[in-house]
């Protein structure tokens, strides 16, 4: 059966394209997915089918019929999960370094999705289809820490809306190169696909999306700084791009870094430490903390 979801367009979203608006509601899904739904007339505005480039108005009611998820072809794998919390709606996991969130080219097994398919059996949201069941947001392969998995479509829609409205608490810990002078600060600058290297993101590019990262210094070392980050938005590679943009790339970042580091790290030193949200059913605010991984603690000791 189709899952119907209804949304009212806010003032800030007026004049936005229909397909872009829907993609913003479901951050883990692509705009092309919704363009296909629009073509199939599974989307209406004020009960009237519209094209993908239709410009919305404040107060419009957008109804989207999410098709029933196809049979999952990804194989469940008995991969141990570090579970921070679980109930019938959500699963909060502490993702390890080196684990990809969902299957993609070159990563067809050993992903978080393979693991949660085994753990949850048939209890996962299907909004993102067969490739990303249960996934409402993600973190990079070499970033560790807390991540929400949704076990039904209602929970998925609720958490996706909170992510869209920037009300989900997301605090990270990271070590950057150089000595950050200010005790705290804000990095602002839109983020979009790099115009030349399509595997990278970049700041202040045409068609980029607004991005805001707050940071504060936890400890300074001779050549590095230990920081806490809080995301106001959640763009791809946001912390990595923003910190590189102000001359303090994350230690170990092979994509946005500048030169070698002596610690033989596996990717960037970044950890999603705290995740907080309003529970889809109880409506109570919940917050979970993923402890720093062992490699991170050992690195802090070396830097003392």
Which properties best describe this structure?
304 residues, alpha+beta, Pseudouridine synthase, four-stranded antiparallel β-sheet, Structural Genomics Hypothetical 15.5 Kd Protein In mrcA-pckA Intergenic Region, Chain A
Task: Report on the architecture of this protein.
The protein has 304 residues and is α+β, with helices and mostly antiparallel strands. The chain is built from 6 helices and 15 strands. It has helices at residues 18-25, 31-39, 112-120, 153-164, 238-245, 294-303; strands at residues 3-8, 43-45, 48-49, 61-66, 83-86, 90-95, 144-150, 169-177, 184-188, 191-193, 201-203, 212-220, 224-231, 270-278, 285-289. The strands form 3 sheets. Strands 5, 6, 7, 8, 9, 12, 13, 14 and 15 form a 9-stranded mixed β-sheet that branches. The chain has a 4-stranded antiparallel β-sheet with strand order 1-4-2-3. A hairpin with a 7-residue loop joins strand 10 (191-193) and strand 11 (201-203). Helix 1 (18-25) crosses helix 2. It is globular and about 60 Å long. The model has no long low-confidence stretch (mean pLDDT 90).
